[in-house]
Write the structure tokens for this entry.
Amino acid sequence: MMPLARDSLLDAAHAALARRPWSAVRMVEVAAAAGVSRQTLYNEFGSKDGLARALVRRAAEGYLAGADRALATTADPSERLVAAAEWTASAARENPLVKAMLTGCWSERLPAPGLSAVRSASPVPAQRRDDGALPSPGDFLAIVRDRAVAVLAPPGPPPADPAELAAVCELVMRLALSCVTAPPDEGAVADLVRGTLHRQRPHLV
């Protein structure tokens, strides 16, 4: 199947999930919305569980790609962390799959594929990849923390302890995750992160 068709099926599944619980989403409806046969859908994903894992994997990759973009928004180190925190909060607000992955709290409306890899005999390379292990909430924190450290660490000998920089990046991510579970007022994520950076480690970022 062409990648665009696979994306169309995942788009259709995501749209269906926005309207009804995952348990009520029917494969035949997803296929029809994407303009393909049900057999084509099964050929691509193998099962409804395979479709769920692919949907969750795409949401995870979209969140991480957005975090990378946020970390590249400006030359100012503090504002890069602010942007990453704001992206985390907004991505979770707009996509319930992202919120569930970041918090580990899956509502009954959502598919809840296990984080461990599943045995896959799929002939579709993309599905074999999707059937691999999915990131846990701790994995997401560590991935974004480490990417932030890589972006913020200056070339050559660091002016500060690298472990301290990693601690700052992790602190910001934990603040962002707290805003996911208990959303503050609009604009408060940035204010919270800026204030924390100023008080805790002003010499690092």
